[in-house]
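Q: what sequence does this backbone want?
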């Protein structure tokens, strides 16, 4: 019995335990503390802690194919409620009918987003939702869904502002031509005066667009019959010194006159959760739009259709022209998405937008090491320290496609050889101890 025990002990100390002691460091080095690849986007701030240990790593290196800033700090950094960094993004989109494009941001509490946006054609909409890290995939449209979407609760207000003012039409028209103007207004858009709410206006516009699609031939005949009247009106308008634009621009100004042209503290607030009213008995709303609203039901902060402009061709128009502005004060940390989509059956819509984002900055007053605007940097790690590395990815302007925003950050743990050397030394000691059995 004593001999069998000695044989078992010998096998454990010369075969089993040495094998375990050899496998453990290999597993730690190549599985637990191997290189970690992070997928990051512009303006991201992240703590790089995965695959890093103050015991098994003597240094921590980072590399990326674009510049970044990194700080080695003790403990989690805190947000500054006073100091905010300004991020300016210019985005352009081309949206065919029933398509969308979105831009998402992680916004901590206290952030503010000012958005200026314009569209070339009718049917441009903006939808602001609060979601998860990955925007929910709404799948295929579900025809027949016409219910009114539910808005997010407790998320504050999104203010809507109209910058600029539409020019006044001339007052030179005689009574007959004035009557033609009124008839043209009613025949074209049937837009009520200022007492009509903007919600019903956008709904009527959408109904009219879908009606035009279903009755295209009828519309062409009507345009032919009215062409003489339109030409007569256009001739009179062109005779005025102030009316030096073409008829399409006059029509656009008439549409803009419906919008409020007075400002209260920089703009008109529609109550942060404004959205375009949808009649439950209305079947003119597209299945694409109804599915989109149903998909984000309960998370919608703003749903808005904005008027088109023939001068919305570049970002310069957003500095001087009549366009929509929104202001969003963030009350809770989270991921927020600005979804743009077009509901125009005839034209691919050109949309230009400028985001001015003001985000609270992190305080790195207690950092020990830092590298600024680098593509590769290394931080030493003290034994049993609680230091961590925080990475900030700068904002790059002019990116037009979401896939271009993604950059890969590689985090590498440099092994602490003194710790790993313990394992092979222990194997040798076990084998040598067998001589005394």
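A:
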């Amino acid at each position: 019995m004593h001999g069998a025990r000695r044989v078992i002990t010998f096998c454990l100390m010369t075969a089993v335990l040495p094998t375990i002691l050899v496998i453990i460091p290999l597993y730690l080095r190549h599985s637990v503390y191997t290189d970690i690849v992070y997928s990051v986007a512009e303006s991201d701030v992240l703590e790089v802690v995965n695959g890093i240990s103050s015991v098994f790593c003597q240094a921590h290196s980072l590399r990326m194919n674009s510049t970044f800033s990194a700080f080695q700090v003790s403990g989690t950094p805190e947000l500054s409620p006073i100091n905010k960094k300004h991020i300016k993004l210019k985005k352009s989109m081309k949206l065919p009918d029933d398509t969308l494009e979105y831009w998402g941001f992680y916004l901590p509490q206290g952030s503010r987003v000012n958005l200026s946006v314009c569209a070339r054609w009718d049917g441009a909409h903006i939808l602001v939702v609060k979601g998860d890290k990955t925007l929910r995939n709404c799948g295929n449209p579900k025809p027949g869904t016409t219910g009114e979407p539910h808005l997010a609760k407790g998320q504050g207000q999104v203010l809507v502002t109209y910058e600029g003012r539409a020019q006044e039409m001339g007052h030179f028209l005689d009574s007959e031509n004035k009557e033609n103007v009124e008839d043209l207004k009613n025949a074209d858009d049937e837009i009520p005066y200022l007492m009509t709410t903007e919600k019903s206006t956008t709904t009527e516009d959408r109904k009219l667009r879908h009606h035009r699609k279903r009755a295209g031939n009828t519309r062409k005949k009507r345009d032919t019959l009215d062409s003489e009247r339109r030409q007569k009106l256009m001739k009179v308008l062109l005779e005025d010194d102030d009316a030096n634009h073409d008829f399409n621009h006059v029509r656009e100004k008439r549409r803009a006159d419906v919008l409020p042209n007075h400002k209260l503290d920089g703009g008109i607030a529609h109550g942060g959760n404004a959205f375009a009213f949808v009649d439950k008995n209305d079947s003119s709303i597209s299945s694409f739009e109804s599915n989109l609203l149903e998909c984000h039901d309960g998370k919608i902060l703003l749903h808005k259709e904005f008027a088109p402009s023939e001068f919305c061709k570049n970002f310069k128009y957003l500095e001087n022209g009549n366009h929509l502005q929104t202001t969003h004060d963030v009350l809770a940390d989270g991921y927020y998405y600005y979804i743009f989509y077009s509901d125009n059956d005839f034209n691919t819509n050109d949309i230009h937008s400028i985001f001015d984002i003001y985000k609270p900055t992190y305080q790195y007053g207690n950092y020990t090491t830092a590298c600024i605007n680098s593509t590769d940097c290394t931080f030493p790690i003290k034994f049993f320290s609680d230091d961590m590395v925080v990475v900030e990815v700068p904002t790059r302007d002019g990116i037009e496609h979401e896939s271009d925003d993604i950059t890969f950050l590689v985090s590498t743990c440099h092994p602490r050889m003194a710790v790993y050397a313990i394992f092979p030394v222990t194997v040798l000691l076990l084998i040598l101890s067998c001589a005394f059995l």
